[in-house]
Design a protein that fits this description.
The chain starts with a helix and ends with a helix. The chain is 46% helix and 21% strand. It has a six-stranded antiparallel beta barrel. It folds into two domains: 34-188, no CATH class; 191-337, Lysozyme (Orthogonal Bundle). By secondary structure, the protein is α+β, with helices and mostly antiparallel strands. It has helices spanning 5-30, 74-80, 154-160, 179-188, 191-204, 210-227, 231-242, 261-266, 271-274, 277-295, 298-313, 320-337; strands spanning 34-40, 44-47, 50-53, 62-64, 67-71, 82-87, 90-95, 115-120, 127-129, 132-133, 142-144, 147-151, 163-167, 171-175, 249-250, 253-254, 259-260.
């Protein structure tokens, strides 16, 4: 049956409109942007002596090809004495009076991953400072979470008068004052303390490499800072559970913090993820902090970590596990306090 002329015309119009939409979406999706795999610093960051957990931020400091990338968000820039604006096609960084309050934009939820995707702007995209493009030495400007990111190349830092250093265990430090101020911040950090924690882990588990022990300490410190937990208690719990062995498995308990599969699912983690020491430390610390919030006692929280809410609530538990953790914590503290 032949369609009426008006229906054929309508069909052609609809097809042409669909083609236009398809082309428009394709152009918008491409738009000269290239997806880049980037890293999210998993240690703390310190900017002008202000310390914060990087993965707690809506706009974390990123790492791409071993170069640190700083978000040009309003709060951070204002506290550092700068303002980023875009006027037409021009992106401009201006020196302003520093804000009195140091403010980071917190993420709605902590990012459990240290990898992400960003978009690289076209090569012609630059940021102007004092009328001249900042020299990014061939590194592109990135966009992550709708925020522009500036690579902290040598020439960028030199032009802006910024001093920065990233230490694997002490974290990322940046000063807008001087190199001396930067070194003072690093010396005042917990690096020596964190190194001692790593050394103790290797004493308990000699199979741990130095770099792996450093990883564990960075993740532990980050999680303890976020959830208000004491590192010595967490060290003792991990020692009691697995002796810092991420591949440990016993009676259904998995990984470095020996989290049960059912508990892991309640925390949003798969069995595979429980073997990931970073995620296990993160969520194990969170899990213990929830028990501390419930009971107001770290001792009862530790017992509940081992024997569950139900047994602690009805008073049907033993202190054998707690005794072991407390004995191990005493050894951790003795090691940390030894001259």
């Amino acid at each position: 049956m032949t369609k009426p002329r008006w229906m054929r015309v309508l069909l052609i119009v609809l097809i042409m409109a669909a083609a236009v939409v398809s082309q428009t979406n394709s152009v918008f999706a491409d738009d000269g942007l290239v997806t880049k795999d980037v890293g999210i610093n998993d240690s703390s960051i310190t900017i002008n002596s202000n310390v914060v957990s990087n993965r707690s931020l809506a706009f974390p400091i990123l790492r791409y090809n071993d170069i640190q990338y700083l978000p040009l968000n309003w709060n951070l820039m204002k506290s550092m004495g700068y303002q980023y604006t875009r006027i037409g096609d021009e992106r401009v960084l201006t020196k302003v009076e520093p804000g009195e309050t140091f403010i980071f934009d917190a993420a709605a939820t902590m990012n459990p991953s240290t990898s992400a995707q960003a978009y690289a702007l076209e090569d012609s995209a630059v940021i102007l400072y004092e009328g001249e493009p900042l020299d990014t030495q061939g590194y592109p400007l990135l966009v992550h979470n709708h925020m522009i990111y500036l690579p902290l190349t040598y020439h960028v830092k030199d032009a802006l008068g910024w001093y920065a250093k990233n230490d694997r265990i002490a974290g990322f430090h940046l000063s807008t004052e001087s190199e001396e101020a930067l070194n003072t911040m690093i010396e005042a950090s917990d690096k020596a303390y964190l190194e001692r924690l790593a050394a103790f882990m290797r004493k308990v588990n000699p199979s741990l490499s130095e770099s792996r022990a450093h990883d564990y300490v960075v993740w532990l410190k980050d999680a303890c800072d976020r959830y208000g937990m004491d590192e010595s208690w967490m060290m003792a719990v991990i020692w009691q559970e697995s002796s810092f062995n991420a591949n440990c498995e016993y009676n259904g308990a998995i990984g470095i913090m020996q989290i049960m599969g059912s508990t892991g699912r309640a925390l949003g983690l798969s069995i595979e993820q429980l073997y990931d020491p970073q995620l296990a430390i993160e969520y194990g610390t969170k899990y213990l902090s929830q028990k501390l919030d419930r009971y107001g006692s770290i001792e009862r929280a530790v017992i509940a970590y081992n024997q569950g809410y139900y047994n602690v609530d009805r008073g049907d538990y033993t202190t054998h596990y707690l005794d072991g953790v407390e004995a191990k914590r005493a050894k951790v503290l003795a090691f940390l306090n030894a001259v």
